[in-house]
Amino acid sequence: MPGSVDVPVDTESVYSAIEESAALLDVAASEDAVRPLLAAFEEALPEAVIAFRVATNARHEGDFDARFTLPRHIDPYATALAHGLTAPTDHPTGRLLAQIQQLCPINSYGVDFGVTSGFKKIWIYFPAGEHETLERLGTLEAMPRSVAANNGFFTRYGLAEKVDVIGIDYRARTMNLYFAAPQECFERDTVLAMHRDIGLPSPSEQMFAFCEASFGLYTTLNWESGDIERMSYGVKTDDPMAFFARLGTKVEHFVTHMPYGVRDPKMVYAAVTSGGEEYYKLQSYYRWRSVSRLNTAYIAVRDKESA
C-alpha cells in the first residue's frame, strides 16, 4: 500500500512518487534537482520517514517540497556539500550544525528539498524527552542574535528550556526553533498575547481553533534582525480538510487526490505573516513510521492527552 511501512523504497520509486504528487499541483519535478539529492542519501531511504508538503500561500506557488529523516551517523550538511547539493558559505548557517553537534546529543536528522529547487533545509532532532535550553544554545557563535534577544519572551511562556528540534534553512538563511510547549501556549488568551508580544497581527477565529488542537509550535528567526519572524503551530490529523477555510484550486485538488499515505496521519501547520496573511502547510506521508522520532515525545503526549 502506498505510504505503508512495507512499501519498497529506493531512489526510483521515491522519485516517481514525487513526480506524481507534484503533478497534482501542476508542478514539474526537476530531475536535475531531485535525483542527485536522492542518490546522495540513498542508503538512508529504506528506513526513512518520507513526506511531501504543500503550502497555501502565494510565496510557495510553483514549488512542492519533499523531506525525509536520517539516522544520526549521516551528517546531512556534510553530505550535501560533498555531493554538490549546496555551495560552501561563510554565513553562520554553514557553521551552526557542527557547533550544535559539539554541544548537544542528537537523535536524528531530516532533510527538506524543493522538487524544482533542490536542497533547502535540515532538521536536528534531540533525543525524545531531552530538551535543549536556549541558555546553552545561545552560547554558540553561529546562533542568531535574535535567540538571545528574545530570551525574555521564550522564558515568559515556558519555552526557554523546551527546545525539541532545530531547523536550519540554508537557502532562506533562517532558523526554526521547535518547542515542546506547555498547554497554555495553545489557549486563546496566550496565543493572542504571544502574537502581540512579537508584533504579529491577531489570529482569526479559525486560527484560534486550530491552535487549541496543536501539538507544538515553532518560531522562525534570522541573522539579520533581533525579531522573531514568524510563529507557527502544528496539528496531527486524519482529516486535513477540517482545518482549511480557503484553499487555492490546486491545493484543494492535491488534498483530495493525493495518492500516498491516504490512511496515514497528516500534519497541518498554520502561521500568520507580519502582513496579516494566514496560511497553512499540509504534510502528507509517502512512508510513515509510527515508531519514528516524529511520533514520539510531545506529539505522542498530546495524542495521549486527547484520547
TrEMBL record:
InterPro entries: ABBA, Prenyltransferase_CloQ, PrenylTrfase-like_sf
Pfam families hit by this protein: PTase_Orf2 (PF11468)
Keywords: Prenyltransferase, Transferase
Keyword Membrane: no
Similarity comment text for this entry: Belongs to the aromatic prenyltransferase family.
Protein name, UniProt field: Prenyltransferase
Lineage: Bacteria, Bacillati, Actinomycetota, Actinomycetes, Kitasatosporales
